[in-house]
Amino acid sequence: MTTKNPHEICIWESKKNCSDCGLKGKLHCHLNIKYSIIFGIPFFIAFIPAFVGLILLGFPLNLISILSWIGYIVFFFLVWEPQILCSHCPYYAEGKSKTLHCSINYGFLKTSKFKPGPMSKFENVQFLIGANIIFLIPVVFLIIGQLWIYLGITLFGIVLWYIFIQLYVCKDCVNFSCILNRVPKKERDEFLKKNPKMYKAWKESGYQFEDE
Ligand code: SF4
Ligand code: SF4
């Protein structure tokens, strides 16, 4: 055990150890800008028209809507999401680092402790609700303001974002217990077996490995 990698997670070991790993290139187990781009572009296709639309609502509705939206986003990404989602992700297990170094939330303050076991059903329900509120807030205000074009582009961006992350991000993501995760069970089991602390915690939670 090292202070750099107290949970002995392979993604925080030297990349030299990856040379004979069958999962190499299949998972998002190292920082990769490809995932940031695929995750970020459709998100901003929804975010930018929504933000412009909210500005056009006129005072004071624009101020109320933007402050409540941004306030909620900060709360979700720094308080709620870390507790229920990211704390179960191997990226959260990085030694003494106070910030995250994954391709999706790079640089975000770590406000929870790593939990090697899988997310519970309740945490997954909270994640689905919490993530969708991010989109729901501007959608409600755009409907109130009858800004239909902005609403349409925002909804288009949201659908695009879900399709893109499902196709290109969630199928490689190492946070396997997230409800959106699409990594095949064989790869999931292989990764967990490489990481004894996660393996033990998942087994204790009742997770069934394919060949056991
Ligand atoms: S799963 Fe672990 S050992 Fe395999 S390539 Fe990824 S970081 Fe390296
Ligand atoms: S769940 Fe996603 S956003 Fe959270 S730490 Fe893991 S890779 Fe980053």
Separation of the first and last Cα atoms: 27 Å
Helix content: 40-55%
| Beta-strand percent range | under 5%
Q: Which stretches are low in confidence, meaning pLDDT under 50 for 5 or more residues running?
A: none
How would you classify the quaternary structure? single chain
Bound molecules: iron/sulfur cluster
What does this structure look like?
By secondary structure, this protein is mainly α. It has one domain. It has six helices and no strands. Helix 1 runs antiparallel to helix 4, helix 3 packs antiparallel against helix 4 and helix 5 crosses helix 6. The chain is elongated and about 60 Å long. The protein starts with 32 loop residues before the first helix and ends in an 8-residue tail after the last helix. The mean pLDDT is 96. Bound molecules: iron/sulfur cluster (2 copies).
